[in-house]
Amino acid sequence: MTTTTEPVSDETEPRRSWLKEHSELGVSVLLLVLGVLVLTDALTMDVDIAQRGPVGPRTVPIVVGAGLLVIAALLAVDVLRGGRGEAESGEDVDLSEPADWRTVLLLAGVFLATAVLIDPLGFPLAGALLFWGAAFALGSRRYDRDPLIAAALSLLTYVVFNNLLGVPLPGGPLMGVL
Amino acid sequence: MNALNSLMDGFGTALSPLNLLWAAIGVLLGTAIGVLPGIGPAMAVALLLPVTYGLDPTAAFIMFAGIYYGAMFGGSTTSILLNTPGESAAVVAAMEGNPMAKAGRGAQALAAAAIGHFAGGMVGTILLVALAPKIAELAVDIGAPDYFAIMVLAFIAVTSVLGSSRIRGLASLLIGLTIGLIGLDQMTGQQRLTFGSLQLADGVDVVIVAVGLFAIGEALWVAAHLRRTSGEAIPVGRPWLGRGDVKRSWKSWARGPFIGFPFGAIPAGGAEIPTFLSYVTEKRLSKHKDEFGKGAIEGVAGPESAASASAAGTLVSMLTLGLPTTAVAAVMLAAFQQYGIQPGPLLFEREPELVWGLIASLFVGMVLLIALNLPLAPLWAKLLRIPRPYLYAGILFFAAVGAYAVGGEAIDLVILLVIGLIGFGMRRYGLPVLPAVIGVILGPAAEQQLRRALQISDGSVTGLVNTPFSVTVYVVVVLLLAWPLLKKLIKRGSSDRTVDA
């Protein structure tokens, strides 16, 4: 909700700060794209097959798609008029600092790597890598303690879920050896 | 008394040694996760969902009830000792509880909160026992148009009562409805938004959506703005109350439930409004008005009792109508759907053992909660010192376990991350998360009821409003929608008057 007008030196600056100020318009664009996507999917649907009742499978998607377009427009108007969505605060959230994109990207990368590795490596290894990687991305640098905690947590979770709670998780080669 | 007999049977179920064990584990896990800073009840319940996957439904929901109450109690501990409420309902607990803790009365604040939870939960659950079967009986005849009306009410209420911007609430709801559309159309088998992918034809599991939006979204959002200096938690001993404290608190404990319960049952944002109402009431009625803001015990006792009772109220509309009024109820509804159980008026007829076992275990859970948590409070307080990298790495870890456990597919982890990134963006731009979750859960059901209703009426729109029940609900919807306009008119009217005067 802050409207900081920083002093500008050259000519590209005002435009950039205007965009930064109105970055919420991006949400509007995304909603618009989503609306178009839903509408195209609904309108290109082949509904000759067995339509039961007066309302077919297209009706609700068309309503939702149209709703998305309307909301995209309303949101754009609201943002241009100076409305701002309030960023969420929380116990560990410090909004006075700019967003730390490096951490977010690292975390997303670690998570994707887990998705790739969980089947070949099995849960105990992939899970441990996920925990250690995420803790590392978040700034923990205890090379003696972090991997141990990660391994213990992952192994314990595997045993509790797989053996005690009856929720199957892939053991992977490690469990094959043990 | 039919309900009493059923409840007794329920106790028979809940008190079997194994179910008692699940309830105890649920309470302990719920409290431990709820105490952790940054984890609200909704995230706690979503993260603990996979724990129950291997259990039969009755045991799972008994454990769930414990998790729910435990997480709520844990949240208030965090507010009192750390002064950084993770969710709006805990704000009030921090307002008086934290000054108390700072003045060395943390033990009393925790005890007032714990007993408040106990009292509120007890009264709330008794009201639940008295009211829920009656409501279910009344609702048993309601048909498709009525269900559709209730769901429209849920959509409108969740977007216009919560949050500061209706446009953003609606945007969130539409995002949720869109996710809910993905997959095969339930009535015709038509593929929608699947883009030919076999993975998407099954639809996106609601558990993945809930965990993605609540847990991954939150963890990424906090990671982007991690406070480098965490607040110091105030150490605390075993909670206890002196006679003076009890004398000041007992009326507040008794009043809280009657403020909390009704608000929990209607879609008005759960515990947020009743805790504030209770706080204001206690402040007005207190003989120690000057202490408010500096650590008045009534300001902890009343609102905590109200919050706990509102949780019971939430269960009334969740169990009898299948209508989730809070984020936690939304996640619980998702859990019911996991077992192929549809909460609603017929639930009491079809699954009496489960429902009454669940309700009885609410009582058991509360007794366990107070018996375990008073002595364990100093231990819970230690959890507040967990290093933040471990905390958020742990959230990601358990979110991954939960999503993978749903279907044993690695691709679900990718979908989870994508939904988590959506949740991140929503937090950045102030789109509330709850409408999206409600949209995913209720969207497909609402569509089915709509189509069923129109099928019966042969396509005539009057088929949606041909029962007194549905008309009443739509009147409420219109009132909700018109409320800002009405408020403006009232304000203008009163300001005109002041100008005249």
Automatic annotation (TrEMBL), chain A:
<keyword id="KW-0472">Membrane</keyword>
<dbReference type="Pfam" id="PF07331">
    <property type="entry name" value="TctB"/>
</dbReference>
<feature type="transmembrane region" description="Helical">
    <location>
        <begin position="124"/>
        <end position="141"/>
    </location>
</feature>
<keyword id="KW-0812">Transmembrane</keyword>
<feature type="transmembrane region" description="Helical">
    <location>
        <begin position="25"/>
        <end position="45"/>
    </location>
</feature>
<feature type="domain" description="DUF1468">
    <location>
        <begin position="27"/>
        <end position="170"/>
    </location>
</feature>
<protein>
    <submittedName>
        <fullName>Tripartite tricarboxylate transporter TctB family protein</fullName>
    </submittedName>
</protein>
<feature type="transmembrane region" description="Helical">
    <location>
        <begin position="60"/>
        <end position="80"/>
    </location>
</feature>
<feature type="transmembrane region" description="Helical">
    <location>
        <begin position="148"/>
        <end position="169"/>
    </location>
</feature>
<feature type="transmembrane region" description="Helical">
    <location>
        <begin position="101"/>
        <end position="118"/>
    </location>
</feature>
<dbReference type="InterPro" id="IPR009936">
    <property type="entry name" value="DUF1468"/>
</dbReference>
<keyword id="KW-1133">Transmembrane helix</keyword>
From TrEMBL, chain B:
<feature type="transmembrane region" description="Helical">
    <location>
        <begin position="167"/>
        <end position="184"/>
    </location>
</feature>
<dbReference type="InterPro" id="IPR002823">
    <property type="entry name" value="DUF112_TM"/>
</dbReference>
<feature type="transmembrane region" description="Helical">
    <location>
        <begin position="61"/>
        <end position="82"/>
    </location>
</feature>
<dbReference type="Pfam" id="PF01970">
    <property type="entry name" value="TctA"/>
</dbReference>
<feature type="transmembrane region" description="Helical">
    <location>
        <begin position="389"/>
        <end position="422"/>
    </location>
</feature>
<feature type="domain" description="DUF112">
    <location>
        <begin position="20"/>
        <end position="437"/>
    </location>
</feature>
<protein>
    <submittedName>
        <fullName>Tripartite tricarboxylate transporter permease</fullName>
    </submittedName>
</protein>
<feature type="transmembrane region" description="Helical">
    <location>
        <begin position="144"/>
        <end position="161"/>
    </location>
</feature>
<feature type="transmembrane region" description="Helical">
    <location>
        <begin position="466"/>
        <end position="486"/>
    </location>
</feature>
<keyword id="KW-1133">Transmembrane helix</keyword>
<keyword id="KW-0472">Membrane</keyword>
<feature type="transmembrane region" description="Helical">
    <location>
        <begin position="429"/>
        <end position="446"/>
    </location>
</feature>
<feature type="transmembrane region" description="Helical">
    <location>
        <begin position="311"/>
        <end position="333"/>
    </location>
</feature>
<feature type="transmembrane region" description="Helical">
    <location>
        <begin position="354"/>
        <end position="377"/>
    </location>
</feature>
<feature type="transmembrane region" description="Helical">
    <location>
        <begin position="20"/>
        <end position="49"/>
    </location>
</feature>
<feature type="transmembrane region" description="Helical">
    <location>
        <begin position="204"/>
        <end position="224"/>
    </location>
</feature>
<feature type="transmembrane region" description="Helical">
    <location>
        <begin position="109"/>
        <end position="132"/>
    </location>
</feature>
<keyword id="KW-0812">Transmembrane</keyword>
